Amino acid sequence: MPATIQTDIIDLCGTVGKILLENGAETPRVETTVEYIGKAAGIDLSCHATMTAIFVDSNSDPTTHLVKVRTGDFNLQKVDEINTLSRRFTNHQINYDQLKAGVTAIDQRVIDFSWWQKILGAGLVSVAPMLLFQATWSDLGLALIVGICGYLATQWIGRHSQTPYIGVGVGGLVIGCLAVGLQLSGLANSADNIIVSALMPLVPGVAVTNSLREIIGKHTISGLVRAVDAVMVAGAIGAGVIVGGALARLLMGGA
């Protein structure tokens, strides 16, 4: 195989791995997908993925291709689309040119929901735990409102600050302040139930799930990195809730 074609395949595999890792895929999935694509394209590839970089090289060429990764918000739809595309290629349902065009299109596409869909989703996620608590209808409605406010605060801070964890911390502060304030004013029956429910949109569920899967799969380093990141997010949320609750009690004169 000509060197230029081999280099092009390795570059494409690096892009595939970057898209997967940036959008929430676990490292075993990234490595397996890249190696399967290389094998289907006629190259014996080796891939090693970490949380910050992906290394791709051919076993017949000593040159290693390095792709730097910057993880941020997850988008599992892109992960699903890349997985579908790679499966179709490995099953010889599409050729290499079609694979390359598809990967480029997915990489450049901005996949997002409208704001009203995000707000509605955050509210519904905040309401669901209240059903387990057998909460009153008033608390259920308040949890929806508080959850939306916390989510909007998190998104707003995230768009205006690059400081890690500050967004979820402010979201927790808003939720804690509103929930405790509503209870002290007599509008809510249980601030604790509202806080637990309203925090659901902020919980790093994907990071926790991926960290456990990676640790179980013996990808210990990346699994621990994800776990530490999830713990930091949880710590920022908890600190925000404590400060918010204390602030509400201070302003409203609660015990």
Automatic annotation (TrEMBL):
Subcellular localization, as worded in the UniProt entry: Cell membrane
Residues covered by the Threonine/serine exporter-like N-terminal domain: 11-246
GO MF, any single term: transmembrane transporter activity
Keyword annotations: Cell membrane, Membrane, Transmembrane, Transmembrane helix
A Gene Ontology cellular-component term: plasma membrane
Membrane topology: Multi-pass membrane protein
Domain of life: Bacteria
Spans through the membrane: 140-158, 165-188, 194-212, 224-248
Pfam families named among the record's database cross-references: ThrE
InterPro entries xrefs: ThrE-like_N (IPR010619), ThrE_Dicarb/AminoAcid_Exp (IPR050539)
GO BP, sorted A to Z: succinate transport
Family (UniProt): Belongs to the ThrE exporter (TC 2.A.79) family.
Name by which UniProt lists this protein: Threonine/serine exporter-like N-terminal domain-containing protein
